[in-house]
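For the sake of clarity, the format in which proteins appear in this thesis is described at this point. The record quoted next illustrates the convention:

___
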Amino acid sequence: MASPFVPERMFFTKGVGKHRNNLQSFEAALRVARIAEFNLVRVSSIFPPGCKIISRRRGLALLQPGQIVHCVMADARSDEPNRLVSSGIGLALSAGKGEYGYISEFHGFGLTHRKCADLVEDMAASMLATTHGLELDPDKAYDERREIYRSKGLVVRTRAVAQTAEGDKNGLWTTAVAAAVFVS
């Protein structure tokens, strides 16, 4: 029997919210992501061994309103018109069975959707690679580092979910949220 503190499943979600108040903008983003009705507890970056990635629809069906739900979350907020907010979650898994993986998060400004997704995948893969004793040059491009992983026999599978949004032109708070949500 699995421990209730080691999640068996995880899903990705994201959303954008806008409101005149900062907190309500965050709440609106959580609603779009469909996780506003849970008591969210932010956790750090380990993907448990044996954990399965499931769809958001399936994950939400396993949860109930008010439930304490653990997640890795990134959120970026701004009330500056046209400012680009970016949030992303990256996942890196080793091809080896029974090994844990890494989840990374980023929240900031100015990154496009693609750049944010690439960044969080790179961060997660880099963290995973260092657990296998690989020393990496952070100035090398991710594609170069990926070749180093392969040459050392480390097969890394990555995924990302990213959410970007342009700050509301009238100065409303704009929040971009991305999350990896754990389900027991």
Remarks:
- The chain has a mean pLDDT of 91.
- The radius of gyration is 17 Å.
- The longest strand covers residues 9-19.
